Amino acid sequence: MSGHNVWTHKGTFLLAAVGSAVGLGNLWRFPYLTGENGGGAFILVYALTIFAVGIPILIAEIMLGRTSRQSPIMGMRHLTKTHGTSRAWETIGWLGAASAFLILSFYSVIAGWAIHYTWLMLTGSLVGADAQTISTGFDALLAAPGLMTLYHTLFIAASALIVGMGIHKGIESGLRIMMPALFVILLVVLAYGVINGDIGAAASFLFTFNIADLSLEGWLQAMGQSFFTLSLGMGAIMAYGAYMPSNVSLTRTAFAVAIVDTAVAMVAGLAIFALVFGAGLETGQGPGLMFVTLPLAFAEMPFGALVGGVFFILVLGAAISSSISLIEPVAAFLVERFDMTRPQAVTIMVIAAWAMGLLTVVSFNLWAEGTIFHTLFGRTAFDFIELLTNIFMPVGGLLIALFAGWALTQSEVMKELGSSVAWFKLWRFLVRFVAPAAVAFVFLRTLPQVEGYLIPTLGALLIIGAFAASQRWLKKPRQTT
Ligand code: PHE
């Protein structure tokens, strides 16, 4: 093994995993996707996948990291050797690296918007502004590729510095204060929404489950979002699991992460939609949703400039603690595999993701709807990258579930889970059958209708490949039960 360190403090893994999970996915992506997909139906599919699929896979992913104690790709290589399975299971690592790279590319651009709003808040530029002014201001930001690139560069460089210098393990104490503070400010915004917005309309929008409201692509987005928000299926959690002490309860930690993450998303969703309905804004306005509704509350509330400034700083903190978990698995792999130094590995990963991020930048202006790019491909580059991650992450999760469910032995898993046989059996049933069936169901239901021929073909190949391969790859020499 590669001399992997183990975090000495018991709560460190939980903190790091919550840091990774809670981010723009909860505050920005969850509300905007829910709004675009008609509310409750989206939330129903999202919540079902979190609990029936997400939590079991979360446990599986931590488990793979903790037993191998290496970066995802090298860790899978190690596990395939010790379990006599095919090396093809390394796909989990490779697919994860691809997802991490794609996500980081757009994540950094969106986090860049939060830099812009931190600035607007702290300078008091939006004090007293009305909805019209705020949304015009947001459109102006989208129309400025240069400015967006500048923010994107700042954010990704800051993330790279933290991971490159290896201090991400030291930002614990920061997270310990920031995460609760973020939650408290969200509650303040929610309270403001209850008083000045329309919380009743928000609640009925979010919690009226009419499954017929959900479009086919909505199903895919809801499942993708549940993986995205838990940082699942791409190696981030596996990479952190490699540092988790053996005596910490896997199950309890996984539930804690999922519950905190879901709570943050729900509070953010309620607050944002209370404001949306209160001010008569559009629910389905897309990626700008959070950036035009929350500033509206800060524009009017007492000390709003300060509260808003602190809020966006905390958003940036939550985003950075997620983006470093996107860089970590890929960087750790490059270090282990190619003997690079940490800074070299991080530099390569980040420069590539930065360049890819420019595609997201221009998706909102030069190559937006109505341009030749959009006409040719039917969607913007940003939409396309999001679609790919909505497919890649569940496929990665599916493979993780299958490997953990079928390749690991009962005694190994029992040692990791450290709990009752009944829970072990339930968990194994979930990862062996329920999670794969749910992922396959959503793919088969949606992929054939999405995006002409390219995506269905890609998706079908991935699913068939995953199942076929899992049968072959799992064959092991008889003596190694
Ligand atoms: N879970 C993070 C969020 O919700 C995003 C993320 C995805 C981080 C995958 C790491 C890995 O913001």
Can you tell me about this structure?
- With 481 residues, this protein is mostly helical.
- It has a single domain (2-473), classed as Amino acid/polyamine transporter I (Up-down Bundle), CATH 1.20.1740.
- Helices cover 76% and strands 0% of the residues.
- It has 20 helices and no strands.
- It has helices spanning 12-21, 24-36, 40-68, 72-82, 91-122, 131-142, 145-164, 172-196, 199-207, 216-229, 236-241, 250-278, 289-300, 304-338, 342-363, 372-377, 381-407, 410-417, 421-446, 454-474.
- The longest helix is centred in the last third of the chain and has 35 residues, at 304-338.
- Residues 477-481 have low confidence and may be disordered.
- One of its GO terms (molecular function) is symporter activity.
